[in-house]
Amino acid sequence: MTWNELIDFNIRGPSQHEDIPDIFVYLIGYNTDVPNEKHRICFARFKAIDLLDESADFSIQKYFFEEDRALDKLDDE
Question: Are the C-beta atoms of residues 48 and 22 closer than 8 Å to each other?
Fold first, then answer.
C-alpha cells in the first residue's frame, strides 16, 4: 500500500452497523538494517459506525495517533 491509495475489498460482517467493531489504522515502520522487517509504531482508532455515515465530512483532517505501548517503539521524549 502506498500513501493515499484507495483499497477496495469486500468483507462479511454483522448486519447491523452498530455491531461492527472499531477500525484500527496503524503507522508501520521499516527496519532499514533488516530487509522486509516491519513493525507497528502507533495507531488511530475509529468507530466503524462513524466511517459508514454517508453524511460524514471526509475532508482532509489531522488525526493524532497513539503509541502502541506493547511494542514501545517511540522515544519517551
Answer: yes
Domain ranges of the chain: 17-53+61-67
CA distance 64 to 77: 17
Note whether 72 and 41 are within 8 A (CB). no
Owner of C-alpha cell 532499514? 32
Query: Please, what sign has the CA dihedral across residues 69, 74, 41, 43?
Result: positive
Dump pLDDT digits (tens) for 9-62: 777 778 887 888 898 888 888 877 777 778 788 889 988 888 887 787 777 888
What are the C-alpha distances in Å from 70 to residues 14, 22, 28, 33, 67? 29, 19, 14, 22, 9
At which residue does the C-alpha cell 483499497 appear? 7
